Amino acid sequence: MSQVTILDVSLRDGSHAVRHAFTEAQVRAAAKGLNAAGVRYFEVSHGDGLGGSSLQYGLSATDELKLIEAAASECTNSDVSVLLIPGIGTKQDLQNAVTAGAKMVRVATHVTEADVAAQHIQLGRELGLKTVGFLMMAHMAPVEKVVEQAKLFESYGAEVVYVTDSAGAMLPQDVTVRVEALRDALTCDIGFHAHNNLSMAMANTVAAVQAGATFIDGSMRALGAGAGNTQTEVMVSVLEKYGYATGIDLYKLLDVATDVIAPIMQQPQEITAGSLVLGHAGVYSSFLLHAQKAAQQFGVDERDILMTLGNMKAVGGQEDLIYEVAQQLQRA
Amino acid sequence: MSQVTILDVSLRDGSHAVRHAFTEAQVRAAAKGLNAAGVRYFEVSHGDGLGGSSLQYGLSATDELKLIEAAASECTNSDVSVLLIPGIGTKQDLQNAVTAGAKMVRVATHVTEADVAAQHIQLGRELGLKTVGFLMMAHMAPVEKVVEQAKLFESYGAEVVYVTDSAGAMLPQDVTVRVEALRDALTCDIGFHAHNNLSMAMANTVAAVQAGATFIDGSMRALGAGAGNTQTEVMVSVLEKYGYATGIDLYKLLDVATDVIAPIMQQPQEITAGSLVLGHAGVYSSFLLHAQKAAQQFGVDERDILMTLGNMKAVGGQEDLIYEVAQQLQRA
Asked: Which residues of this protein are catalytic (chains A, B) (predicted)?
């Protein structure tokens, strides 16, 4: 039976879904349960990674270092991962996270910008961490570009490179071609991270594993940004049906999902009209609020704005474009 | 572009999720929206079909004939379907539904019991209805059995035969082999109805369409029994990405989902521990409550009871078995 390593992101991607309001007690309870259930890694950070707590990205209710420390103190089998987006988090943030007990770092960049991560990957290795490169919005780049960028990550020292479907915009064949290409081009491990905007997170996860990915992200009750992630406890059941071993005790994981995560949730992880349109268009979830404002200002449909941005392959940082698109739609 | 006919079951399968409390005003608003969005058929009945309102299956807050009438009065493009489970609904119920405005009947039986439906299918045709056979719990029978039973439906006069994954227990290959076999063996149309207990409803739906199904069920916001159905508005987006036409205006459908269905929901359509275990074990959702009672009585884990029942291929009507299994687990 092939082995798949599960990384649970409830305490990091889920941070978005609870407006960064995790408490130490909540994180401790979830960490204790994940450790007991045999989940190899789980991630604890602000939703936008180390240092994300800010007016721009949302203030954390509790210092993330305290949360990392609480989580790490519960680990006897599991290890705590942290996410680091260069430009948001710093090398100092990473050193502090290691002091707090982190054993893995995932350095995340836009799919075409792996080169900004070289120092952070190198530092991760120097600090003795399991070190991972995380290519976000991977649906936006053609396969050759994904391979090129993944090779950069590997050359810096990444031990795993992730294909990350940040917008939940991929279909299984999109996952298959990317993971297979990395499988052929790299010697390190391949990971996959899904969002459920098109209700395809689980099918995409199965496609990734069948194509050779061995590190897979999920979150309990799907707690994560937008429509949420692949639901970890469901994935354990589904992967087992496909003949893959996760080493996770399903009943124990179900208990954490039901007793610890469900009560924390501020709203259910549904596919709303907003998250569907984001997934359909394949644009950043941070565009939604701007599109709503621009739609009101110019008297156009926010969905048309998002669809247009998707066709233009707009990326984060191009928020001004949203208002230009709205104006053009008004004229048209 | 191939055409797929969508049948929305929010107002029938969704009846379970709102404890059969739909009001005339709610049904009218949803019907108006579905008709405007171009959804060809939508179903209105008690969750367990015509005549389901009872202490055993749950009392309807509003007489279903009034709901059917309200829905039908809003239809200029769409047609109203009703579900009929022989033994729960009667031929008289069907005649009354037709008087109220129903234009389609779906006669539902357990996957091995199509023969109980002969008279009802024949009556549907006599009444001039679009007439459909609906094979529930289709994962429990091998492909040859599904084909045999579907042929019975066709011989009675069914114009469409559905493969129905009542427990949300199927994976895409389970769907593919069943739909392809029916495609080869029947001349009538093939339909598919999914539940999302394993987070595979959308992938299973795509598999069904690719294998030749042309009638597909969905529900807005996934409102339905257990973990809910394939989410209709998401399906419209996904099928379009796969190159299938649904004839549905996505924006109009999103408006119904957001403005009419979401406010009606009593709880979100999440995959809870209970619905996951039902899907994993592949057993009737009505077993859950009995399993919980039996677990308490015999001091065993309800999940072990359900998994054992799944392995035994227990079917509805065998509720006594649940307590026997609990007792055996206690002894073991």
From this structure: 16
ipTM: 0.95
pLDDT digits (tens, 9 = 90+) for A124-145: 999 999 999 999 999 999 999 9
pLDDT grade for B82, boundaries at 50, 70 and 90: very high
> In a mutagenesis test of the B interface, which of A219, A276, A283, A311 is the best target, namely the one with the most B β-carbons within 10 Å?
A276
**For testing contact with chain B, the best of A175, A233, A234, A248 (most B CBs within 10 A):** A234
Residue with tokens 């600090």, as numbered in its chain: A127
Residue ranges and CATH numbers for the domains of chain A are 2-264 (3.20.20.70), 273-331 (1.10.8.60)
Q: Do B237 and A279 count as a contact with CB atoms less than 8 A apart? A: yes
Considering only CB atoms, B276 lies closest to which of A206, A237, A273, namely: A237
DSSP assignments along B169-235, one per residue? ---HHHHHHHHHHHHHH-SSEEEEE-B-TTS-HHHHHHHHHHHT--EEEEBGGG-SSTT-B-BHHHH
pLDDT value at position B317?
Answer: 74
Cα–Cα distance measured from residue A331 to residue B55, given in angstroms and rounded to the nearest whole number: 59
Helix (H, G, I), strand (E, B) or coil at B51: coil
Active site includes A16? yes
